[in-house]
Amino acid sequence: MKVRTLVALVSVFCASISWAREPFVVKDIRIEGIQRTEAGTVFSYLPVKVGDTLDDEKAAAAIKALYATGFFKDVRLESENGVLLVVVEERPAIAQISIVGAKEFEKDKLKEGLKQAGLAESRIFDRATLERAEQELKHQYISRGKYGVKITTTTTPLERNRVAINFHVDEGKTAKIRKINIIGNKEFPEKELLSAFVLRTPGLLTWFTKEDQYSKQKLSADLESLRSFYLNRGYLEFSLESTQVSITPDMQDIYITVNIVEGPKYTVSEVKLAGEMLVPEADLRKLIKLAVGDVFSRERLTESVKLITDRLGDDGYAFANVNASPQLDKEKQQVGFTFFIDPGRRVYVRRINITGNTRTRDEVIRREMRQFEGGWYSTSKINRSKQRVDRLNYFNAVSIETPAVPGATDQIDVNVDVKEKPTGAVMFGAGYSNMEGLILSGSIAQDNIFGTGKFVNLMVNTGSVNKTYSLSYTDPYFTRDGITAGFDLYKRTLNTATLVAVNSFNTDTTGAGLRFGIPINENDSIMAGLGAENVIIHLGDNSPQRNVDFVQKFGKSTINIPMTLNWRRDGRDSAIWTTSGTTQRVAAEVGLPGGDLTYYKLSYDLRWYYPLTDTFTLMLNGELGYGGGYNGKELPFFKNFFAGGNTSVRGYNISSLGPRDSNNRTLGGNKRAVGSIELLFPMPGLKNDRSVRPSIFLDAGSVWGPGGVIPEQEGLRYSAGIAVMWISPMGPLKVSVAQPLNNHPGDNLQRFQFQFGQQF
């Protein structure tokens, strides 16, 4: 740019000298030398009009103005009998840009980057812009660890004053981190310190994660992690002396050396509170996680400051300021802290603003808010509101900000921003086994119909085993107090003849029911339902004697009055990406007197999430079930519990575990126990992507009950494997690969299972 300006100024200066002639009145203006540029464009930039008197000053201004357009590389002014001749030489235009040899990046993305650098087709060609674009292209490759990249640029003249630009890229090999050295560590081995780093030397998965490629930003983050490692262990005077990054002459290997000074370990000598105590000091001291005699930890200090700030925020002090001032005693290697508290002004919420909800109505979100307009600000109510909106499961992301109201010192706004996700789904599940081949099922549902928050589920399953036609409707706010109401209509046909693992029988069930739910508190709710159903039983030729005896006793057709009662507690931190908390569910189904069958089924389900680190989450899941009959009757065989499949013990075929008949077909049972241990973590290389979450799992479970002829088949079965849950643009996809650990002869295995849904 500086070169262009200098050339223009020199040209203007020379033109001024060459124009040293008498001023004259411009009778006409002619443009010569233009090929692509319209004459009208030149006239629009030319500061001289017909009838003007042209002198040296105006001539210089005209030349400067035309140069400033960037369209021309030479401009001359001539005169002939009162006619002003503007003679120009256009800069060439870029006709095409081609990139050869680029594999690391998509060519379209590289061209977009060149466009942002000022180089694009149809634009005026400028050598300085080309050089900048070439450097930007190199920087892109260097950011991917390709330090040896070579870029050769050629420009080819074309007809009509145009040029073609070609970038030939020799990417070279990606430089790898061969060694990371930490010098100065005495208390901790280098291997333990390097475990806090993201950057590492080449390993089994680094080809995918790219963690063996140097990045200045990643190194800065790793050094901060190293600092936190020491500060959380009492080394208050820890310091990074220097960091050296070197690369071999062939641009292939990178070596990183970090020099540190650990310093002494400090313990806490005293903890004091000072400032304006609007909350009893005793209450605030309970929030401080540092005690006298403890080894200093910056993490616990930061947590203490946050807890005190949040506690003041619950009383409306949204802008409370808490500073922990240290007092070091280097001789005794002790540190004391004084927490200075400035609560600031108490504020209230002026307005709650909701954005991002393109389908969901405002009222659906507002009724989940526990922070109200006009009320005092409360940190816990803000957090609780976010959790409740999150648990609606209508959104991919929920964020809340609390900016101050301009011009007011005691008001804030609450800005709730959501990112909608598909809430309607056409689902189908699939699994594959050697005996049964492909197994399919499906349903159609809308969890947020017309953005009202109401649920509608229409299931149409035409599989060979299960044929289901059902309609369910739920209004989660049947009353303003949050009482839920809904109904179910269903017709189900179960035919186990095609299931190798299950004994042969067929049931046709037609029924209807009403449901009501009552919220007990923020986390607990109770759901009660009452229905009526007709069950028609058809037995196969090889049905077990237990089923035959049941039909002889109760008949092929029964009328039942099932009552259901459920209690659920949801204490998860997030329904989108759960890292902590629990969910519990207790369910009971009872066949009431007045119907043909009197029975009960009880079940308990617990899921517990615990964050092991910022990356890994431990999930424990346990399910228990028990059933039986009363009033002299028994649990109907078609109400039995089953286990096996991708919702219980993976690696075994669906409903294949537990008691079996003489034909090795599953009977089901009146007792069920299933559990799993699962380690959840982000997809390597996609840590910020909340749509993909893999896991490693260990499953166990089985079913017990009377009627089995092979008792050892009732024992617990174990399996282990890996699973991936992906919320894809086409719908949720869950894949698992499991290896049974103690399968017995006759067990029906299904190592690979997946479930996929199409969302709209």
Automatic annotation (TrEMBL):
<dbReference type="GO" id="GO:0051205">
    <property type="term" value="P:protein insertion into membrane"/>
</dbReference>
<dbReference type="InterPro" id="IPR034746">
    <property type="entry name" value="POTRA"/>
</dbReference>
<protein>
    <recommendedName>
        <fullName>Outer membrane protein assembly factor BamA</fullName>
    </recommendedName>
</protein>
<feature type="domain" description="POTRA">
    <location>
        <begin position="175"/>
        <end position="263"/>
    </location>
</feature>
<keyword id="KW-0677">Repeat</keyword>
<comment type="similarity">
    <text>Belongs to the BamA family.</text>
</comment>
<keyword id="KW-0998">Cell outer membrane</keyword>
<keyword id="KW-0732">Signal</keyword>
<feature type="domain" description="POTRA">
    <location>
        <begin position="92"/>
        <end position="172"/>
    </location>
</feature>
<dbReference type="Pfam" id="PF07244">
    <property type="entry name" value="POTRA"/>
</dbReference>
<keyword id="KW-0472">Membrane</keyword>
<feature type="signal peptide">
    <location>
        <begin position="1"/>
        <end position="20"/>
    </location>
</feature>
<dbReference type="Pfam" id="PF01103">
    <property type="entry name" value="Omp85"/>
</dbReference>
<dbReference type="GO" id="GO:0043165">
    <property type="term" value="P:Gram-negative-bacterium-type cell outer membrane assembly"/>
</dbReference>
<feature type="domain" description="POTRA">
    <location>
        <begin position="347"/>
        <end position="421"/>
    </location>
</feature>
<keyword id="KW-1134">Transmembrane beta strand</keyword>
<dbReference type="InterPro" id="IPR000184">
    <property type="entry name" value="Bac_surfAg_D15"/>
</dbReference>
<dbReference type="InterPro" id="IPR039910">
    <property type="entry name" value="D15-like"/>
</dbReference>
<dbReference type="InterPro" id="IPR023707">
    <property type="entry name" value="OM_assembly_BamA"/>
</dbReference>
<dbReference type="GO" id="GO:0009279">
    <property type="term" value="C:cell outer membrane"/>
</dbReference>
<dbReference type="InterPro" id="IPR010827">
    <property type="entry name" value="BamA/TamA_POTRA"/>
</dbReference>
<feature type="domain" description="POTRA">
    <location>
        <begin position="266"/>
        <end position="344"/>
    </location>
</feature>
<comment type="subunit">
    <text>Part of the Bam complex.</text>
</comment>
<feature type="domain" description="POTRA">
    <location>
        <begin position="24"/>
        <end position="91"/>
    </location>
</feature>
<keyword id="KW-0812">Transmembrane</keyword>
<comment type="function">
    <text>Part of the outer membrane protein assembly complex, which is involved in assembly and insertion of beta-barrel proteins into the outer membrane.</text>
</comment>
